[in-house]
Amino acid sequence: MVFHITIACFMGMKYWSSKRRLYLTPVAFGFACSALLMLGTLSSYPDWLSCNPSPVVKQNDAVIYYFFRNIMMAILFMSSIILYYFRRRIMHSWKAHVMTFAACIVLVLTIIFLSWLYSSHSPKLSINFIDDLNHTFTPLWKSIISWLLMAVWFITLILIICLSKLRNIFWYSGAFFCSAYLFTLFRLLSTVGELDQAWYQARFFETLCTLFLILVLLVDVFILYRESNHKYVNSYQNSIRDPLTRLYNRSFFYDSLNQQLAKVKAQHPLSVIISDLDHFKRINDNYGHIAGDKVIQFAASVLDSHSRKDDVAARIGGEEFALLLVNTSENEAQAIAERIRLAVSAEQTALPERMTISMGVYTTHDRSVTAEECVQRADEAMYEAKNSGRNRVVIWRRQGG
């Protein structure tokens, strides 16, 4: 009973999270009603809590509730697969949602009322599936009812396979659920003599099947979480990356620079390198923007390959790049910049012509310096490299210092 309530809650929450899954509502109602009918089954064992060694057992009532529970579950599973098949036509209509809820509620209440009415609560309408004295099934059960239930579940299984094409794990579990009920009914049908052992075996198998369905739902939740997390990571990366080069963008670079400036000490200097491709406009003018994009991607790949784990390489302008070097002295930053410059200016067979890069380096030990000042000073050094003939690295120096 608890398992069925759990499954009903799972289905209800999945529908609530996405109203496009209207087909889940009949299943949710089915398992919720099934839990209520199981209470009726427990009422057939009036001394089940008192541990009476000789309890009075109304097995016929238990089978009546079992019969109506099977009918109700099969009908709601059929409704679910039909809604799934027509999901693209009716899911966006609020009338479809209202009508589905209303139909499920009416069906559930009707089944609960009929199961209560045909049990021993109404002797005039009571039907006998079991002889409570001999604990054996009556001919009505063996000849008609059990075969009727098996036919209903078989039709449900065929509908699930044909209409869903078993496209996902949910419908695989639905097909397994139908097969499990067919097996339990066949086990009860094949019983000879007293049915106690067969009844408990059937209920045990049904419980295992329900546990399996819960496991499937948990797996589905895990898959949804993994997909959601993957989409979140991709979305976050896209928000901090430059789409052309996949380096970090200007916003992330400044955020990282501000964070690292708060940690700057005399023993932990911070260096910033600003670089700009030389004569890049000529590439665009002579060879087109596609060739220009290839040049930018090439320079970005060189910058990224020479970056360390804690460094931040970013594209902050059209052909302008920045490199944030954590715990890096001025001499170390200059050496890194020189390696990048030489790598960029090396022979490039994939580019339309040889490219060079001018770079400016600024190093600080003072946390009072702002991020804008760091970039501005490195930028000034870079323009000094441009004005000095390009294709070189210049260290920022205070004027008159």
From TrEMBL:
Alphabetized InterPro entries for the sequence: Diguanylate_Cyclase (IPR050469), GGDEF_dom (IPR000160), MASE4 (IPR033424), Nucleotide_cyclase (IPR029787), Rev_trsase/Diguanyl_cyclase (IPR043128)
GO MF annotation, one: GTP binding
Enzyme class label: transferase
One Pfam match: GGDEF
CDD domains: GGDEF (cd01949)
Name of this protein: diguanylate cyclase
SMART domains named among the record's database cross-references: GGDEF
UniProt cofactor(s): Mg(2+)
Chain segments annotated as transmembrane: 21-43, 63-86, 98-118, 144-163, 170-190, 202-225
Any GO BP: cell adhesion involved in single-species biofilm formation
Span of the signal peptide: none
Protein's organism: Klebsiella quasipneumoniae subsp. quasipneumoniae
GO annotation, cellular component aspect: plasma membrane
Occurrences of domain GGDEF (ranges): 268-398
Catalytic activity reported: 2 GTP = 3',3'-c-di-GMP + 2 diphosphate
UniProt keyword list: GTP-binding, Membrane, Nucleotide-binding, Transmembrane, Transmembrane helix
Biological or metabolic pathway of the protein: Purine metabolism; 3',5'-cyclic di-GMP biosynthesis
Gene3D superfamilies attached to this UniProt entry: 3.30.70.270
Enzyme Commission number(s): 2.7.7.65
